[in-house]
Amino acid sequence: MDIEQERRPLTNTVENPYQVNGSNNTLAAKALLRLQRLVYLSLSLFGLYKLHFYRAIFVSVRIRHVPFQWGLALTIAMFFIKAYVELYQGRLHQQRVNYQNFRQTTHLFLLLWTMTSVCFFVALWPHYKWNTFLVLFLLAFGVVLQFLLLVPNPWAQNGVALVGLTFFLQDYAGFGAA
């Protein structure tokens, strides 16, 4: 058999069950995918509840609060970059949001994401030890990513993020102020 025949491009005969805009774009497939994301989100929130995540941030003396505050600051910076790119550049200036148009912004976002992960890891490790991996996975994949996939509208995503971060920062700012 000729090598060129072996290297011919693959045809698109296999349907991807995760492809929302593909040929299998039925109502049942979309509903099943949303249900799956909702289950992931619910299980992740339940896991964080069982690990006493929210209470540990405020009560545990083993949480390192300076790296946690740095992680929060970097999270807010990522939120503003996301809002700027999606809402200001994408919606108001009608610029297509993709890697080619926002290469430097994408790299900056990935750098901030890495720094945020390191900050939260350093902050949570004394309390959770090896469960820190699980906690950060539940937060990143289980809560944040599933929410972003469930609510595809950037206005709604940024609105919920703004309100959620505001309430969390108010609670966290009151921590230790008594």
UniProtKB/TrEMBL annotation:
It comes from Fistulifera solaris (Oleaginous diatom). This is Uncharacterized protein. InterPro entries: TMEM128 (IPR033579). The keyword Membrane applies. The chain crosses the membrane at residues 38-61, 67-85, 106-126, 132-151. Keywords: Membrane, Transmembrane, Transmembrane helix. Pfam families: TMEM128. The keyword Cytoplasm does not apply.
